[in-house]
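[09:14] KT: can someone run the structure on this one? pasting the chain below
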Amino acid sequence: YTAFLERACLIRRLPASTITLGKRLIKSPKLYWRDTGLLHTLLGLTHPADLYMQPWVGASWEGWVIEQIIGHLKVYGYPVLASHFRTNDRYTLDLLLEHQGKRWAIDITISSAPEEPLMDRLATASRLVGADHAILVSRTAEPRKYHGVTSLSLVDTLQMLGVWS
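[09:31] RB: done, structure tokens below
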């Protein structure tokens, strides 16, 4: 069923990173609904105001942001090599991109005020994978930097990737 849904462009299968580390990596792919409107309907959301009260809103936001980033890269003709990264000791990257000869470590949160421990974990994960850039995509109004991590809105992230003007 998963293969059918993927070929029908209903879900995106994001493979695990192939980076070799001394740590134990989780190698299973992550699945995301490509159309979050369809996801919300299937989950019974009847009113947009109810969205933020749902326990799955973070996963929905994560999938939507990943779809926007990969979709914009493809529309602008960039080759896309995307994966996710996760170790058994809970260092994660929601999206690991190889883009324009650089490695981009991207984590995603629905928060509009991301906390420093989240940014610290992203900084550590980005060092583990040897990333050139570490970005936390959030709903922040203004960019914020902390220990080599930049917290940006989705639009600012797309501008930094060079696919939004």
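[09:33] KT: thanks! The mean pLDDT is 91.
[09:34] RB: yep, looked fine to me
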